[in-house]
């Protein structure tokens, strides 16, 4: 295989379905060229970016209402699990996570920020921003953790402070 067709570490491990491999590569794990004395991406990554990578590693895990991992998740269970793995505590529900994060304008959003979906009853869903208007999330019963385009404008963004 040529270097440009080599599977990512996540796909070689069987964690990321091939259908999202290129989107994950472009949106969440963009590579940089390192100069002498530079650190690699993993060392330079923020807590939020590391949480994003953890969420992405759970691609294909089934949605289960109330699921908090490590093998099945609901939306807030996925975000809570991902941030817990990098040493940050988040509350259990999407609304509680919204209340706990620093709210930021959409123009300031970065990979690893939380995306909150709003309805009449408040916040009803949460995912982790992957860039390019995409999120990693656990959508609903019968689905799996996946990368998906943000489908509405009724969202806000929150940052978990490093």
UniProtKB/TrEMBL annotation:
KW Cytoplasm (keyword) present: no
Annotated NlpC/P60 domain residues: 40-162
Highest taxon of the lineage: Bacteria
Statement: the UniProt record of this protein carries the keyword Disulfide bond: no
InterPro entries: NLP_P60_dom, Papain-like_cys_pep_sf, PG_Endopeptidase_C40
Secretion signal, residue range per the UniProt entry: 1-27
Pfam families: NLPC_P60 (PF00877)
GO BP, sorted A to Z: proteolysis
Family as reported in the entry's similarity comment: Belongs to the peptidase C40 family.
Alphabetized PANTHER family for the sequence: NLP_P60 DOMAIN-CONTAINING PROTEIN-RELATED, PEPTIDOGLYCAN DL-ENDOPEPTIDASE CWLO
Name of the molecule in the record: NlpC/P60 family protein
Native source species: Streptomyces luteoverticillatus
């Amino acid at each position: 295989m040529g270097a440009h067709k080599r599977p990512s570490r996540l796909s070689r491990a069987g964690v990321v379905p091939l259908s999202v491999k290129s989107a994950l590569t472009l949106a969440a794990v963009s590579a940089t060229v390192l100069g002498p004395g530079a650190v690699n991406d993993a060392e330079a990554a923020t807590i939020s970016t590391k949480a994003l990578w953890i969420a992405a590693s759970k691609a294909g895990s089934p949605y289960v209402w109330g699921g908090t991992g490590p093998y099945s998740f609901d939306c807030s269970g996925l975000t809570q699990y991902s941030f817990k793995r990098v040493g940050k505590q988040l509350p259990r529900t999407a609304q509680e996570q919204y209340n706990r994060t620093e709210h930021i304008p959409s123009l300031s959003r970065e990979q690893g920020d939380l995306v909150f979906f709003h309805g009449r009853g408040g916040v009803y869903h949460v995912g982790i921003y992957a860039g390019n208007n995409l999120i990693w999330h656990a959508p609903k019963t019968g689905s799996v953790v996946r990368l998906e385009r943000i489908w509405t404008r009724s969202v806000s963004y929150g940052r978990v402070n490093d």
